[in-house]
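Chain A, query sequence.
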Amino acid sequence: MDKIEPLGDVLAFYDSHPINESQILEKLELEGIAPDAITASDLSRHDQDHYGGLPSNDALAELARIGPGCHVLDVCSGMGGPARYFADRLGCRVTGIDLNTERVAAARRLTALVGLDDRVRFENANALAMPFDDATFDVVVSQEGFCHIPDKQRLVAECGRVLKPGGRIAFTDILVTDRMTQETRDRLSRGMAFHDLATEADYRAALERAGCEVVEVVDLGETWRDILADRLAMYRSLEDQTVARYGRAHFDKWDEAYSFFVGLYRTGELGGGRFLARRR
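Chain A, predicted structure.
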């Protein structure tokens, strides 16, 4: 397989993301919870860096039939919130992979903090060249991580490769509509580190080519329109913390990029989908 160069813009995007280890622990401290008393449930209120929070985890887990005995791969696992939630609530084993070394290290520390490191582990790895044997996992999941990865066909093929026959892939991602212009794609790439955003049809075709049968696709565009407006307000509520940590210029740049992104759900240029497919 060809060598894959690191995606520097994606790494930089998450190196200065408003949701980070320090911010999570500060929120728990404000709640009066001592570090040695933090539980997985406590963490799960603040460590879910995806749209819809815990209900979205539950919807994805139900769709993919995650339960005891399952070995789950979380692609683009970030701070590890969903991985810990699945292991704690459903009794499965979870392996998470992420390109960002700092977020992998933070995910490991948070997981050890709540005593789940016997069931949840994280690796620094590229989703386009996963360090796993064929047919390793029962389930592959991801939540709004694929948007940062170029070459969706190669990405989906890798997910299919590491799935056992009959295994399930369940993921959510940002989707483009036919209203999207190249100028807007370019601006999203610069501001949000999105790469080669796909349509629903693109993902259906990629899954079929990867040997997976598409079972269900749920349209999330309208739901995300409201969720993202609330998420923008949440990020703005962290203005003082973000400015203190990264500077005023960074906050202003982030706010401009995210506001533009959220607005595309009101104009119908962006949508979202929850996919379930089964490896043949």
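The mean pLDDT is 96. The domain at 8-279 is CATH 3.40.50.150 (Rossmann fold).
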